[in-house]
Each structure stands twice: as C-alpha cells, then as structure tokens.
Amino acid sequence: MNRGTALRSLTAVLTGLLVGCASSTGADDLRPPTPAQTSPEDTSTAPPAPPECDPVASYAPTTTPGASVQAIRDRGALVVAVSADTYLMGARNPVTGQIEGFDIDMANYVAEAVFGEPGHLQLRVITSAQRVPALTDHEVDLVARAFTMNCARWEQIAFSAEYYHAGQKVLVATDSSATGLDTLPKDTRVCAPAGTTTIAQLERDYPDVEPVPADTHTGCLALFQQGKVDAITGDDTILAGLAAQDPYAKVVGQAVSDEPYGLGVAADQADLAAYVNGVLEQVKADGRWAASYDRWLSVLGPAPAPPQAVYGR
Known about the structure:
By secondary structure, the chain is an alpha/beta fold. It has 10 helices and 17 strands.
C-alpha cells in the first residue's frame, strides 16, 4: 500500500467516526418538477393557469412578535430541526459534542432575537426526508437543514426569505482535469444520494456518466475514498464539507442548478416566518451573516453579498 492510499484510507476511517453518531443526510437538492405541458388541442378546455409561483417569495418582515413567537417564549426554547453530519452547515463537533455550522448560526440568531439573550435553542437531528413532516406535524418550530425552497414544498409548508443561495456542482480528485459535470470523461462513476433529483438529473442530462446511488453524501465520500466512485455531485455547500474532510478532493465547475435555502416553517405560522424574516434582515445588514460565511464557507471563495430577500405572500 503506497502512502497516498494509506492516507486516503485513514481519512475514510476518520470520516466514519465523525459522522457515525448520526444517520442524517446532506441536502437532497430537490427542485421544482418541470410543469406538465398541455397539448395545443387541449387549450380550449384547459382550466386557467394558476398564478406563477415564486419559490423565494416569503412574508414581509416584522419585528413585532405574533402568537407563534409568544408561544415559543412561553415554552422557553426555540425547537429547530437540523443535520448533525453536514460538515460546515450542521455537524457534530467530535471534540465538544456540539452541533455547529452555518445553518446552526442562523438558528442561534433567531433564538437570540426571540428571547433577547443567547441560548434557549433546542436542536433536533432529522434526516432530509423528515424535514417536511417535522413541520406539518408541528414537531419543531423551524427547519434549518440546507432546505431548498421550491413551489412543491410551498404547497405543504412555508419558508423564511432566502438566507443562502447554493448550486449543484461536482467533487473530483485533486489530480482530475475535469472542470465541471459536463467535462467528466465517459463512464465516470458519479455518486449522489438515492431518491434525489440530483441522481435523476445525472440520468437525464448526463447520459455518458454512470450514476451511483448511496444512502447519504457521507456514504458517497466513503465510496470515493475507497475508489469505488470517481466523483460526487450535490449542493456546493455539501461538497465543500466533503472536500474539507479529504485532502485529495476538490470542488469544480459552475453551478448547474439554483438551490435557494430558506428556514422551513409550518404553513399555518406565517407570523413566525415574518418574524424570522425580520431577524434575517438584521443579520444580513449588521455583518453577522458575512461573519458566519467566513467562518464556515470561505472554502467556496470570498463572502458574496447575502441573498436579496423577496417578499409578497
């Protein structure tokens, strides 16, 4: 076994130790499905098209707490669903045992605004698939888990304004000449979590590569380090965390999708979404958003301007 192989094997073992305490996955990159097309001969009898959905439009911000915020205060804690293994966004620190990352910072900022002091934040670790049910069943107040806003989800839940704009990219070995998904050699084995639109997009838009499903993004990393796949695709935030765990990996290419992240809120708690939007406005304006980016996501490059909020619901 040469030195490079030994180091890659050691990295895989350490990665397994880091994420072994949680079974949650990274972002699943879900985006709005392509609307069904109506044939020309059906147009005379087709019902009027519904108003176009803007997936990033949320509720006008407010600093006045409503009934939902008061109920959270009365309870004594803001309950937020998060990931515990999405490194840099929401992952358990193996030394301190605390869950930390960019998403966790956003949750802390909201909790501090609600209670006027740090603390009062209760985190609940969930999988990607549990995000919507956790809100429809009112198990949590918010979901802060690399949660892409789309129109299909707006039919079930609500969102805050956009707080981060991600995009699907590809992770490859450091000695790879690929500059993006469209430059991968024929028959490249590309991993993505099973049951996501990421893997579906690979099958649909990149017929020359071989899609390889795994349970999680960290499962993809293990396959990559074992030499069983050649690349991993997913949101750039997720891939940045994987690359930070493997010195033989890099993230390349321009984003091939738009993934606007919002904090998930129950559909019947628009007042909470509006209050969260007031907090996010302040966080973006006073430098805390940029500070969190610099701490967690600077591997993606210099801090961009925070996403511009869109309101109108």
